[in-house]
Amino acid sequence: GRVPFTHDLDRTLEHDLIRAELVSLPLALIVLIVVFRTVVAAALPVGVGALAVVGGIAVVLSLSRHTDIAQFTINMCSLIGLGVAIDYSLFLVSRYREELAAGKGHRDALVRAMGTAGRVVGFSGVAVATGLSGLFFFDGSYLRAMGIGGVIVVSLAVIFALTFLPALLAVLGDRIHAGRIPLPAIGGGGLWHRTAMRVMRRPLLFLLPTLGVLLVMGVPFLRLRFAAADVHVLDGTVEARRSFDLLLQHFPDQGANRITLAVRFPSAPALTPERAAAVGELAHRVELLPHVRKVESPLSGAMIPVGQDTVVLYAISDAAPETDAAADLVRAIRTDRRVADGLLLVGGETAKNVDATSYVVSRAPKAVSLVVGATLLVVFLLLGSVILPIKAVIMNFLSIAGSFGALVWVFQEGHLFVSEGRPVEPSLPVVLFCVLFGLSMDYEVLMLSRMKESYERSGDNTSAVADGLERSAGLITSAAAIMVSVFGAFALAHVVLLKAVGFGMALAVAIDATLVRVLLVPATMRLFGHLNWWEIGRAHV
C-alpha cells in the first residue's frame, strides 16, 4: 500500500542520510589533510560544512511546521550543503595560505584572500542559489520545497564562509599551520602549466576528441523514459518492497497494474438505469483496449462500493505501470471522458506517471531559461567578458549531458551496479540540472577569475590561460575530490532515487573537473584568443 511505502521510504532515507554523512565527512577530511598537510587547516572547511548543513536543516525543519516538506529535501540539504560549504572554505583557506606563503602578514593575507577568493565564493553562491531557484517553478510539488531548502543551505554556506571562517582565521593566526603532517605536496603547478601549453599548442587535437567522448556519453539520454517513484525505488531488503514482491508472486491480480476509473455524476443516485447503461458501455469499451485483461466494476459483480454520486471501476492491465504501453492505455481511456451526464477521471500508478511527466516537462523550459539566463548574468558581472559567459554555459551543458547519459545507461537500462533498471523519476533530471549548473560554476568562476587576474597583468591570452590553470587546477582537483567523496557517499543509498542523485552529481563533477576544465577550457580559450576578454564597457562589482 501507499502508506507502508511512504513510511518505509522516509525511514530508509533517514538511514541513508546518516550513513552518507558518516562516510562523506571522514573522506572529505582525508582529502583536506592531503591538500593542506596540517590538521587545523583541514578541519576548518569540514567545520564550516557541518555548520551550514545543521543550520540549513534546522531552518527547513522549522518551515515544515508551516508547509509540507518531503524527507528527500533534508537529504538534498545535506548533500548540497556539505559539498558547497567545504568547497567555499577550501577556496578561501587555500588563497589565504597562498598569500601567507608569498610573504604577506596575516592581516594582509586575509584581506587579499577575501578580495579574491571571497569574491569568487560570493558569485559562486549566487550561481548555485540561482540554479536551485529554478525549482521554484514547480509549485505544488516537493521540488519547490527542495529549492527553498537548497537556497537556504547554500546561503548559509556562503555566509559562514565569508564571516565565521575569516574570523576563525584571524583568531588562529600562526596556529593555522598547527598539526603539520609530513605528506608530500600534490598537484604541482608545473604539471598543470605544461598541460595547458600542450593543449593550446594543438587545441583542435584535444577539443574534437573530448567533445566526441562527451557527446557519446550523452547519447543514452535520448532514450530517456520517465516513471514516478514507487515501491521499486526501494531495494529488496526493505519490508514494503518484500511484501509487494510476495503479493505479485502469489496474488498476481492484486499486484497487477490497476488503472482506476472514477465516474462522477452531478447528482445522486449514481446508478440510475441510464447511468448504469453508460457505465457498462464504458467498461466494455475499456475491456477492448490493448493490454486490458479485464475490468472490475460494480455491475460485473466485483465487490466495489458505489458512492452517492460516484462509481469506481478498475482496469486490470498486463502492462507494467512504468511502460509505454500502459501510458498509451491511460491516454486512450482519457480520449472520451463523458459517461452519460458524468465525467470520467483516470488514476493509478500509470496515470500518475503520465501526469507527473507532463507536469515536469511543461515547467522545465522556464526553469532552464531562468538558470541559464541568471548564470550568464552572474559570470558577466564577475568577469566583464561577453564571450566567457556563453562558453561557460556551453561547457556546463556538455558536462551535464555526459552525466545524464550515464545516468540513463546505469539506472534506466540496468548496467554496472544496478541489477534492475527502471525509468527515471521525472523530477530527477530537473533536480540534477538545477543543482549541477550552479555547482559547475564554482570551478568555472574560480579558474576564469585566476586567468583574468593574469591577463590583466600580462595582456597575453596564452600565458594567462596557462597561469590561471596552473594556479587553480590543483585546487579544483582537490575540491572535485571532496565533492565526489560527498556525492559518492550518497550513491551508497538503499533508495534508487537518492543513489541516482549521488551518482549523477559525482560523475558530473568528475567530468567537469577533468575533461572540461583541463582540456576543453584551455583549448577553447586558445581558439578564441583575445576575443575571450572582449567587454561591453567594464563591469566592476
Summarize the structure in words.
The protein is mainly alpha-helical. It is 70% helix and 5% strand. The protein contains 16 helices and 5 strands. The protein has helices at 2-36, 39-63, 71-101, 106-133, 142-172, 189-201, 203-218, 239-250, 252-255, 273-287, 324-334, 349-383, 387-412, 427-458, 461-490, 496-528; strands at 257-264, 292-296, 310-317, 338-339, 342-347. A 5-stranded antiparallel sheet has the order 2-3-1-5-4. Strand 4 (338-339) and strand 5 (342-347) form a beta hairpin. Helix 1 packs antiparallel against helix 2 (39-63), helix 7 runs antiparallel to helix 16 (496-528) and helix 12 (349-383) packs antiparallel against helix 13 (387-412). It is elongated and about 95 Å long. The model has no long low-confidence stretch (mean pLDDT 82).
Indicate the topology.
Layout: H1 2-36, H2 39-63, H3 71-101, H4 106-133, H5 142-172, H6 189-201, H7 203-218, H8 239-250, H9 252-255, E1 257-264, H10 273-287, E2 292-296, E3 310-317, H11 324-334, E4 338-339, E5 342-347, H12 349-383, H13 387-412, H14 427-458, H15 461-490, H16 496-528
Antiparallel strand pairs: 1-3, 1-5, 2-3, 4-5
Helix pairs in contact: 1-2, 1-3, 1-15, 2-3, 2-5, 3-4, 3-5, 3-14, 3-15, 4-5, 4-12, 4-14, 6-15, 6-16, 7-13, 7-16, 12-13, 12-14, 13-14, 13-16, 14-15, 14-16, 15-16
How much of the sequence lies in strands comes to 5-15%
Average pLDDT: 82
List unreliable stretches of 5+ residues: none
CA-to-CA gap between the ends?
55 Å
SS content category: mainly alpha
Strand order of the largest sheet: 2-3-1-5-4
**Principal-axes shape call:** elongated
Q: Please compute the radius of gyration using only Cα atoms.
A: 27 Å
Largest sheet: 5 strands, antiparallel
Fraction of residues in H or I helices: 55-70%
Order of helices and strands: HHHHHHHHHEHEEHEEHHHHH
Please work out how many helical segments DSSP would assign. 16
Write down how many β-strands occur, each being a DSSP E stretch of 2 or more residues.
Answer: 5
